[in-house]
Write a structure and sequence with these properties.
The chain is α/β, with parallel strands linked by helices and about 425 residues long. It is built from 17 helices and 9 strands. It has 2 domains: about 5-220, Glycerol-3-phosphate (1)-acyltransferase (3-Layer(aba) Sandwich); about 300-405, no CATH class. Helix 5 (about 100-110) crosses helix 6 (about 135-145), helix 9 packs antiparallel against helix 10 (about 250-265) and helix 11 runs antiparallel to helix 17.
Amino acid sequence: MFYFPLKYMARIALGVNFKNIYFSNFERLPMDKPVLLVTNHPSAFIEPCIFGAYLDRNVNWLVRGDIFKKPIFRKFMEDINMIPIYRSVDGYDSIKSNYGTMTYVHELLSKGEMVHILAEGSTAQVKKARPLKKGAARMAFGTLEEYSKDIDIHIVPCGINYTQADKFRSEVMVSIGKPLKIQDYLGAYEENNAKAIRELTSDLEAAMHTLIITIGKEEKEKTYEQVFEMHRNNKLKPIFPIYNVKDNQRFFGEFQVAHKLNKLPNAKLDSIAQKTSSYFSKLDSAGIKDFGVSNNAFGGISKVLVLIFGFFPFLIGKISCFIPAFFAKKLADTKVKQLEFKASVAIAGAIAFYFLSFVILLIAAIVISKWWFWVLLFIIPFLGYYAIIYQEYFKNWWAAVKFNRAPKELQEELVKLRSEIQKDL
């Protein structure tokens, strides 16, 4: 009942919250096979929403069981294909319920369904692959045991990479790995169950390391993020498509940057860290952004004309969507303490508040009964999204203007320092 309406509402909400959502090697994801989708878990609830919103097949999700305790929530969760999985912290009685969960997962896979498992077992907003639990391997082999050893289950490792998971209008890069076929491990499983489960889990972990952008030296996280920002600003990205299954380079480019930094000797990385720290410190002191240095031509007169002619629709969109956007952000900022949950709550709050405001405007349209109000009602969502794009366009233009207004000596110094950092990589 709720799955398909929420699928498209989530697609809209994700498309607003994130600037771009990239799927690398999308063709690797089977659409006609039983699939165990194995991913990392850097942000609560967002990963299942991404797959549910954009895949053209039903996705079933294993989620923490404690949210199923209240009957009203349980019915809703089950209706949108969520399956409870209980942890040791939920108590022994709850863990016993996992037997029913496993049986249900086996049934789904035997029918050719897709099941998504967040295989790290917990959420942590970190840029690295964490150890996987053995649940995915056990579910796959358990299906063969319970139904048929001929079932062609594909276990697909996927890496979810956020530029800044908790930030509005950041980016997501979903990298899909080569499927591991359960049939390739069946012989080993028949010889030694435990060993085969460990082998499959180990192979999944190895695959995940090639699918996740990894900060290998956590004490240098700030340096990594500064280099990532410079890399992103080297190439202007188009606004559309928001959801992109053709641009594999977006992920691989940033993955290579991280890989190069990870391989550098400590002395070389320290040198880069000093340069990036100096570069960004000079930017901050002058009120300049890296985007302005790398894209100073964006401050041209043609951009001014776009901003002037687009200001009035921006104003309408900004005013009309201000209240629901404000309350959604307020909800996430005041009610959520754990960083990993902020984006999820903000997106859910935005859906709820925007839907409520639309209902109120719909009632007003019926009462007022004027054709122009009906027209305004249906273009407001588009104007709201336009307002977001306009603001980003303005910020980019202003960043370029600020750089172009800086003293010539500072401009040359920043360009030179930025160039040196790029060459060091």
